[in-house]
Amino acid sequence: MTDPLVSTEWLAERLGSPDVQVVDGSWHMPAENRFGRAEYDSVHIPGAVFFDIDEIADRTTDLPHMLPSAAAFAEAAGALGLRREACVVAYDTNGVRSAARVWWTLRVMGFPHARVLDGGLPKWQAEGRPLTAEPASPAPSRLEPILRPELVRDLEAMRRLAQTPDEQVVDARSAERFRGEAPEPRAGLRAGHLPHSLNLPFNALLSANGQMRPPGELQALFEGAGVDLGGAIVTSCGSGVTASVLALALARLGRGDVAVYDGSWAEWGGRADTPVVTGP
User: Fold this and answer.
1) pLDDT greater than 80 at residue 218
2) Mean pLDDT for the chain overall
């Protein structure tokens, strides 16, 4: 697998090309009092469509932004004009965060050329590159539903891993939340982590300017967290967003086969029948 990240220079050179499509996947936690759609309406990269991870989601569950069915995704992505043969570049207004969730979702749904803009909109803006408030109006596309289930783990799969840890679970939440020393930002969730899981906070993978660290540093961070980079890996977090940042970083290291626990702690920590561990 080639690098799943593209630079602002790379995108600027290809902006407007029919072979490159741009997606604003900005999303924020409710407590941040920021709204991705409103920010897109104010300013975005020319030609970008807005991908709302809370809308293009399974609307039959109370869990946040769970994957929709393949058919529902194909309809929604087709309405945005997305094409599987194009290089679809996702970005967000944080640097590298929710764009990684969009990247993972696209890959699960059969988009082989999905990429993430390294540094996101902040880097693009800081470099004085083109911006607009004009909404994009791409021609709709017709997409066949495709699903790659090997890139997704559900509750039952995680129950099995809690008993038989034959896949490494790497949690992207902060160390304090992982150890159960800090409350979860979503009400009603227990504190702690899945049995046998490892912890690598996603922000450790990012530099101060919001770009992802180079592969050598990423490798050292994963190995320092106890991850065997040659073994099977599943990533988790609060709701499947920053788990996707870990999956993105692992893809940079050639591990394009890493799965994400879609429900993550919003599901596991919200139940009374799942085992929870506190401490290191």
Assistant:
1) yes
2) 97
CA distance 260 to 242: 10
Residue 87 bears catalytic tag: no
- What is residue 116's DSSP assignment? E
Which of the 8 DSSP states describes residue 44? B
Q: What's the token pair of residue 267?
A: 């599901």
| 55-86 pLDDT tens trace | 999 999 999 999 999 999 999 999 999 999 99
Cα–Cα distance list, 111 to 62, 85, 88, 123, 167 (Å): 27, 8, 8, 25, 25
Number of domains in the chain: 2
Residues 90, 136, 194, 237: which is the catalytic one? 237
Say if residue 22 is exposed, middle or buried (CB neighbours under 10 Å; 0-12, 13-18, 19+).
buried
Q: Which domain holds residue 12?
A: 5-147
Last residue of a domain, one of 99, 116, 147: 147
| pLDDT band for position 44 (cuts 50, 70, 90) | very high
d(CA 108, CA 256): 11
Whether residues 211 and 110 share a domain: the answer is no
Same domain assignment for residues 76 and 124? yes
Residues 255 and 192 placed together within one structural domain of the fold: yes
